[in-house]
Amino acid sequence: MTRTLFFLLMGLVLQVSCEDTKEDFQLDSLGYNYYPLEVGNYWIYQVDSVEYIDLGAIKDTSRSYVREEIVEEFVDQVGDTIFRIERKVSPTQDYNWKVKDEWATEKNQTRVTRTEENLKYIKLVFPPTENISWDGNSFIPEGTEVFVAGETMDFFLDWSYKVLSLDQTETIGDTEYEKVVTTQNADSDELDLLHRRYVIEKYARDVGLVYKKHTILDTQCIEDCEGQTWEEKGEIGYTLEMTLLEYGS
Question: Is the entire prediction scored with pTM above 0.85?
Answer without folding.
Answer: yes
